Amino acid sequence: MTASLLSQLSARVGQVFADCELDPKFGKVVLSQRRELGQFQCNGALAAAKSAKRNPREIAELVVAALEKTGLFQELSLAGPGFINMKLADDFLLDHVNAISKDETFGIRGECTPEKVILDFGGPNVAKAMHVGHLRATIIGESLRRLHEFLGNEAISDVHFGDWGLPMGLLIKEIELQQPELPYFDTANEGPFPSESPVTVDELQELYPAASARSKEDPEFLEAARQATFELQNGRAGYRALWQHMLNVSIAETKIDFDLLGAHFTEWKGEADTNDHIPGMLKRFADEGLSELSDGAVVVRVAEDADKKEIPPLILQKSDGAVMYGTTDLATIEQRQIAHDPDKILYVVDARQSLHFEQVFRAARKGSSLDADAVLEHVGFGTVNGKDGKPLKTRDGGVVRLRALIEDAIGEARKVVEEAGMADRFDAGELSDIATKVGIAAIKFADLSNQRMSNYVFDLERFTKFEGKTGPYQMYAAVRIKSMLRKAADQNITSGDLVITEEAERNLMLALSQLSEAVLSAAEKSAPNILCDHVYALTQEFNAFYHDCQVLGETDEKVRASRLRLCEITLRQIEAVLHLLGIAVPERM
Ligand code: ARG
């Protein structure tokens, strides 16, 4: 029993092709584009005829005659030069839906060979509040993490804090300017240092832009910051202690955002964790002749003959000894190889960093930094834009903070649920739980339902609507089924074996049977939008079913029990897919 209805059908139809002395690969079955003609179609007779140099219509007729004997189909018909339209026998469909619904992952996990996947996402930076750019990294990354977990993979998620470059030196020097009396700046002081941070996260967020601006006007300050970065990286005690404080307060702050977005990390590592690994790595690259000196800097040449555009060398170390973003990323790959020996590392990072990852991956391959068969992939994404079509900015042109964005979404959701009259039905606590879930569902679904690489316009009013292809609507569909199941329980109505009496039941079952394809191709392409499409199709079919078929009011007990079971299965599947999208469903609303 395979979880995928299409691959099962393809195998059976392929066998029929083989029996007709044709290549079984031509038996591929796909969903029909025109439902009125059939649920599925097989277009392989044309290609089979071509390769056998025979008439396509004749071949198709031969295949149809053989298919009729299998008992798999209720109806078979021919269209055009040799397209075969098919309608599945109900027994087959019923068996399939029964089988997948008995399994916790709808039979999908059983189809997969477990892999070890590292997901690098989130990517916040010390002292900088997470901004709109981190929204997609977090939402998409978390969805992929859940997807891999669902498939039975070992999913390791690492936040990869940006905590080691020049910004650290800039911050240290800025703090020194403002509070020179602190103990961290005295070279002779080896500690111990105070356990309280001298700066709050709000102060840090002010300090960084100040320092950055100062470094642009004052070359001496910039030079001092460079020096401080270098000394920090080389272990100067006071700087390390101050840096640790900055890191701690920044982590505490980002945890609030990640909790709001339901993102989970198994590792809280950062660029700084590569520090001890780097000297050995630099030496090895040099010894093996993989790196070279260029204008005083140590670089790895990564250009290849087949390149269509120029791929510049990866800089490992600048002439002043400082290491770069690429150096820490390369070292991180080596450390991940040692610690985890992964099958795959996925980087969920803004598409604009694609050159960086191309350089790093090539350098890693050159240096055999990880197993040759392990996959390195940059899972890029487009920008979140304002209504003007340009990357989202605050009214005065500033960076939009992630927290503000989330709070806006929850605020908008609260308006919508209040307008729907929920304030009268629920107490304050439950109402705010609902508003939070609706707000988060709105931004997540809106984000994930786009093709990853496209940009999209941030429009809360559209995202929070309780109709159409929105998060709140999918969530509401699930809540309605929950409430119906509660009613059934109150009336002691129990579910029973599935039967098919109406077209709408059949269509809903067909929709349920598509999960496996959706999940597997979402994982393969790192494309949560495929899951959004699936859950949307499913809620649409459910609505049609609910419209056409009585459930609790049905008088035939067997039919009623079957429909109730269909509701249970549908709810379980909607909730499972929403969970993969990182969306939680309230008990009622
Ligand atoms: N901190 C980086 C940024 O804000 C993202 C880090 C992504 N991960 C990585 N391994 N480079 O752009």
Tally the beta strands. Answer: 13
Main β sheet profile: 4 strands, antiparallel
Content of β-strand: 5-15%
Assign the CATH architecture of the domain at 402-580. Orthogonal Bundle
List cofactors, ions and other ligands.
Answer: arginine
Give the CATH superfamily of the domain at 402-580.
Answer: Isoleucyl-tRNA Synthetase, Domain 1
Label the overall shape: globular
Distance between the termini: 38 Å
Q: For the record, what CATH class of the domain at 402-580 applies?
A: Mainly Alpha
What class, by secondary structure content? alpha/beta
Spatial strand order of the main sheet: 1-2-4-3
Would you give the CATH topology of the domain at 402-580?
A: Isoleucyl-tRNA Synthetase, Domain 1
Q: Mean pLDDT, nearest integer?
A: 95
What is the count of helical runs? 21
Measured as a percent range, the helix fraction is: 40-55%
Estimated radius of gyration: 29 Å
Uncertain runs = none
Could you explain how this protein is built, in words?
The chain has 589 residues and is an alpha/beta fold. Among the domains are: 5-88, Arginyl tRNA synthetase N-terminal domain (Gyrase A, domain 2, 2-Layer Sandwich); 166-260, no CATH class; 402-580, Orthogonal Bundle (Isoleucyl-tRNA Synthetase, Domain 1). It has 21 helices and 13 strands. The protein has a four-stranded antiparallel beta sheet. Strands 6-5-10-11 form a four-stranded parallel beta sheet, with helices on both faces. β10, α12 (354-366) and β11 (375-379) form a beta-alpha-beta unit. The mean pLDDT is 95. Arginine binds next to loops.
